[in-house]
Amino acid sequence: MNEKNREIFEIISDYGSFAKPFLNLMILRTKKNNGWYHLFKSLEFSWKNEKRKALEEVEKGLIYKNTKTLKYLLLAKELYYLAYLRDYVNVKKNIYF
Q: Do the Cβ atoms of 53 and 45 come closer than 8 Å?
């Protein structure tokens, strides 16, 4: 399933919000105790302009044992949302993880 998740993530990255049907499909198909699920949910909240909820989903996704690729995707998203919310103190903490 990881290969499929990666491919769908590439489609979502390339086409943005036009790929919302693919995002909805992946939210329904992935397990809720998975880092991919929380990454896809954070993208959904981000598109709804709910950045705080998106940040919470990313933090939930970092709890699980993830591959290095997924871990760094989640960390990049976390830094993006923190910078967007202008929480620079936490941005500096997370840069030097």
A: yes
Using DSSP, state whether 6 is helix, strand or coil: helix
Closest of 7, 5, 16 to residue 61, by C-alpha: 5
The dihedrals phi and psi of 34, each to the nearest 5 degrees, come to: -140, 145
Angle between helix 51-61 and 68-84 (nearest 10):
150
Q: What is the pLDDT of residues 24-67, one digit of tens each?
A: 888 888 888 888 889 889 989 998 999 989 999 998 998 988 88
| Assessment of whether the complete model's pTM goes beyond 0.85 | no
Contact between residue 39 and residue 55 where contact means Cβ atoms under 8 Å apart: no
